[in-house]
Fold this protein.
Amino acid sequence: MKPTLLILAAGIGSRYGGVKQMDKVGPSGESIIDYSVFDAIRAGFGKVVFVLNPKIIDDFKTIYQPRLHRKIETGFILQELHNIPEGIEFNPERIKPWGTGHAVLVAKDYINEPFCVINADDFYGRNAFVLISKFLSSLKNNEPKYAMVGYKLKNTLSENGTVSRGVCEVKHDLLTDVVERTSIQRKNGRVVYDDDGQEHAIDEDAVVSMNFWGFTPRYFEQAEEGFREFIRKNANQLKAEFYIPTVVNKLIKAGEATCRALTSNDRWFGVTYQEDKPVTIRKIRQLTDENIYPENLWE
């Protein structure tokens, strides 16, 4: 059974100032998403499912349905604020959904095979998809054996502002701990993150998660249990988010799942800020000139 690619594309991009998921960065008008899907197809994926915001789904379908027609089976689903367990009321002033962990859960009725989760605005590179496809293709649906593709922190920073990363501990090729750190940046010659207004140094060679995960459908039931607990505690919060690394970390520590730590030799890059876009265009142009990608992906 071929694995499925689940692309988290519901964000509006407050720091970026626009809908970066559809922004053109390739020589023939491709977005970063196009390259991810292209790499996934080459790596043996059989389906792609997009998690979207209601505000962008129509424009998104207009672009990607004809583009991916007959290339790969494609699905579109919504991540909406009210998509939470029954019987729980939340703060009516809250306007944003509940984070990446919630985004994965909305796909539970659409995916029945091992699957990979990625961000829409991150360029992961071909090797990452090859690694995760090989891993997922060896699994049965009910196995709690998961994986992540990690990158060195120093290779994932933006020159134009702070970023959030899941900082990982790895032993014997297995993930043993992952902690979400926010407001990471290079400052005064060192890499630091913010924790309740206090700056803390962090090793620039630390392995970080870029939300490139491999799961089986077993993950849905495990994550749903964690989400119910989270939403009961945070229903009145305006900004609390349910993160994928939080779920994985809890499962690892409880002995309910394992997570292989895979390392890609490709260099990650992304578009967190508008200023990142010219850099991304330049890097993709270089990969095209090196014949890693064709001039037009979908010709």
